[in-house]
């Protein structure tokens, strides 16, 4: 449904390219800032309207971190609004192509995912009239440069949007700080720039984030990660093991031989996942290493006689995965292992209360107090006191945030 009201900043994004606009001479537009600020939807609509204002029969690129996220974040909401405006949208799924027609004109919009360095090859050889990058800060520089280089048609332009990352990020350095040399128009958004967002919803998002994620996703700042990764995890955040019959159980494993091994037992009760027990073994502290079989025996003791739905294991622990599978008792699922995205998800579910850590999980409690950001360079936690932190992240990313979970289920930033 078309928004009934636009803020002044949203209107600037919608109309900057129009004849008579004082911004129409720019070659690019860059929008960054807070989540839920309306920048993505307005940019998508504006991009399509501009394409018909300037071209007929042209080819354009719509780029996201993945094609799946692009469809969710841009294609579905934008095409719905365009259809209400009288546009005809014909999506050819097998070709990752949308043909859009209006008033006798038709333009072609090709969909691309820019998830890694190899993605640059996907867009080579094309001739484009314009390109839109959704979540550009999550894409590799090589992909963005290749896509920009494809825009060789006279009058072509570039459209970028993203949430902030760390200050030294290549996109901020080259495009935001260097926007004058790029001839780019820059707009920074906050949630207050989205008139369709109620004060209640704004407060909801403010309560979901803390630390660096609050500054980036709520305040819209490009800030370095520093200090404790989970600064809100004080004593009040840990709970007693609840009484009652858990509906299901899952185990998550961060496997180690030289490094510590950490396994967590999770129980689901009344729409909350509780970490109700754990196994933690540090070979350096104990003075000798345990074998895969010994760790498997510990897994069995942790599970007891409970029916374990699945065991989530670090995908790099190939030998331990094979050991567990060979015994045939547990179903094994390789963990989703994106560190920063996983940390953000863990922060979200711990703060909204859909995941809770029980007080008997002493090693988890200890690591929450010690787990810190590496202040040098790009986002990364210090590789110390991180083994329970990793197995918790595996659990949240793989079980709580399953691919089919929608935004509404956990009120998290799109990912």
Detailed description of the structure:
The chain has helices spanning 8-15, 39-54, 67-84, 120-123, 141-149, 170-176, 179-182, 199-208, 211-217, 283-286, 292-303, 318-327, 339-352, 362-370, 387-400, 407-410, and strands at 28-33, 59-64, 88-92, 97-102, 105-113, 130-134, 157-162, 184-189, 238-239, 248-254, 261-269, 272-281, 308-313, 332-334, 355-358. With 415 residues, it is an alpha/beta fold. The strands form two sheets. An eight-stranded mixed β-sheet has the order 3-4-5-2-6-7-1-8, with helices on both faces. The protein has a seven-stranded mixed β-sheet with strand order 9-15-12-11-10-13-14, with helices on both faces.
User: Can you list the strand order of the major beta sheet?
Assistant: 3-4-5-2-6-7-1-8
> Overall 3D geometry?
elongated
Oligomer: single chain
Structural class: alpha/beta
Task: Kindly estimate the percentage of residues that lie in beta strands according to DSSP.
Answer: 15-25%
What's the alpha carbon Rg, rounded to whole Å?
Answer: 24 Å
Low-confidence stretches: 404-415
Treating each run of at least 4 consecutive H or I residues as one helix, how many helices? 16
Summarize this structure briefly.
Helix content is 36%, strand content 22%. It has 16 helices and 15 strands.
Give the key terms.
415 residues, alpha/beta, 8-stranded mixed beta sheet, 7-stranded mixed beta sheet, 16 helices, 15 strands, 36% helix, disordered C terminus
């Amino acid at each position: 449904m078309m928004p009934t009201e636009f803020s002044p900043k949203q209107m600037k994004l919608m109309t900057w390219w129009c004849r008579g606009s004082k911004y129409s001479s720019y070659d690019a537009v860059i929008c960054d800032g807070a989540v839920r600020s309306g920048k993505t939807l307005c940019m998508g609509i504006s991009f399509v309207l501009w394409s018909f204002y300037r071209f007929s029969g042209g080819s354009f690129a719509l780029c996201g971190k993945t094609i799946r996220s692009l469809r969710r974040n841009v294609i579905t909401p934008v095409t719905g609004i365009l259809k209400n405006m009288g546009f005809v949208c014909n999506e050819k799924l097998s070709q990752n192509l949308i043909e859009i027609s209006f008033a006798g004109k038709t333009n072609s919009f090709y969909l691309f995912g820019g998830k890694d360095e190899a993605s640059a090859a996907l867009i080579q050889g094309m001739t484009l009239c314009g390109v839109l990058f959704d979540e550009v800060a999550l894409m590799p520089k090589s992909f963005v440069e290749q896509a920009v280089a494809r825009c060789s048609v006279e009058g072509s332009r570039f459209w970028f949007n993203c949430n902030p990352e760390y200050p030294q990020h290549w996109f901020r350095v080259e495009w935001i700080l260097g926007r004058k040399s790029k001839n780019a128009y820059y707009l920074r958004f906050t949630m207050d720039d989205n008139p369709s967002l109620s004060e209640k919803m704004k407060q909801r998002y403010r309560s979901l984030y803390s630390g660096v994620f609050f500054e980036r996703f709520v305040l819209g700042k490009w800030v370095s990660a520093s200090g404790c990764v989970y600064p809100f995890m004080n004593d009040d955040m840990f709970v007693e093991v609840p009484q009652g019959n858990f509906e299901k159980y899952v185990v998550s494993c961060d496997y180690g031989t030289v490094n510590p091994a950490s396994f967590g037992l999770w129980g689901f009760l009344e729409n909350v996942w509780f970490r109700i027990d754990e196994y933690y073994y540090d070979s350096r502290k104990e003075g000798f290493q345990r074998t895969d079989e010994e760790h498997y025996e510990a897994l069995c003791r942790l599970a007891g006689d409970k029916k374990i739905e699945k065991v989530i294991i670090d995908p790099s622990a190939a030998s331990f995965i094979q050991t567990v599978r060979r015994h045939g008792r547990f179903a094994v699922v390789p963990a989703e292992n994106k560190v920063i995205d996983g940390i953000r998800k863990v922060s979200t579910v711990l703060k909204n209360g859909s995941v809770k850590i029980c007080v008997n999980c002493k090693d988890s409690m200890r690591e929450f107090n010690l787990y810190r950001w590496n202040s040098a360079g790009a986002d990364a936690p210090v590789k110390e006191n991180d083994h329970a932190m990793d197995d918790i992240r595996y659990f949240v990313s793989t079980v709580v945030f399953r691919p089919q979970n929608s935004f509404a289920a956990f009120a998290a930033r799109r990912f």
